[in-house]
Amino acid sequence: MTFERPLLLLALLALPLAVGLYVVAERRRARYAVTFTNLEVLAAVAGGRPWRRFVPPALLLLALAAVCTGLARPHVERLVPRERATVILVVDVSRSMQAKDVRPTRLAAAQAAVRTFLDRVPDRLRVALVAFAGDPQVAAPPTLDHELVRASLDQIHLYPGYSGTAIGDALALAVELAEQAAGGGSGGGDGTGQTIAYRTAAPAPAPEEAIAAIAFLSDGSQTRGFLEPHEGAALAQEAGVPVYTISLGTPEGTVTGNFGGFQETIPVPPDPVTMAEIAETTGGKFFAARDAGALEAVYEELGSSLGREPGQAEITAWLLAAAAAALAAALLLSALWSPRLP
Predict the structure, then answer these.
(1) Residues 187, 277 share a domain
(2) 172 and 61, same domain (yes or no)
């Protein structure tokens, strides 16, 4: 803990003064008890548990300590929202996402988990959404309007081109969005959600300005696309954009459908090895989610960390609230427990 005005901590010297005044008052009370001759009345007035009379003064002392500490404007180390931060959410919408080994389906579980992410992130965080199968598409550009991202998320199951999984191409598009948003170019950083030319070249940000990250979810292996996954990861590494990968599903996952003119049930196991390699290459983190609960926990963790950085947050308001609560409790208990004449 640090203090903006440390000299004001001298106000804490008022605490021993308050304790001294209380001790003097207690001694005067003892002398009064000796001179009071009607001991039966005195016992009735002072009845109850003896420790009770010390609780209100202790609470008052606690309130005074909180106020005195608050005067010094204390700050604590914690994660604080990072200015101009951007997170690109990339979600696989290929046919394999209809597998039901993750209830109710992999895609529905992913949508619910992303909503949890949006609930956790700072309001100042720009969020984009990319949906991909055989081709990646921008569902929502980098924007401060998180409701726009939610609306786009509800529609990603309607995207055409469910055949194939183009992991490398999806990474390349996500990196491009991240570069544009971090560079302040035409990457939709104004939060309006307007369509833009995403394929224009954008300079990579300097390392100290690399304030974008990618959260990449897929449930399968690369089957289509121009770029291999390691090539997309290399683009992210070069741009200084960490990729947090989530491998969704279980080895037992299957989908049933028309494949090559025949109704078949085919296995759709995830590819955690590729996802882990992407995360390791880019300096991100890998997660394996085998059920909806684990997936939601992953996005909750990401929502609490992405778009934030270590910093100092002032807790003066919390101390003043604690002082007010302690003072109110002291007054209430004093009124309830104060002795009354019979």
Answers:
(1) yes
(2) no
